[in-house]
Design brief:
Elements (H helix, E strand, L loop, with lengths): L10 H28 L7
Length: 45
Amino acid sequence: MTTTQITRPTRGTAAKLARFVGHYLEMVVAMVVGMVALAPLWPSD
């Protein structure tokens, strides 16, 4: 019988998650800035 040991996340995993979340937030900000900058060019009905 094979057992699988469940371990807690390591600092490396936490660092990777923090890097991912930081990059995600950067991309969200970039998209919002782009939408605001290009909004005057979009025709409104």
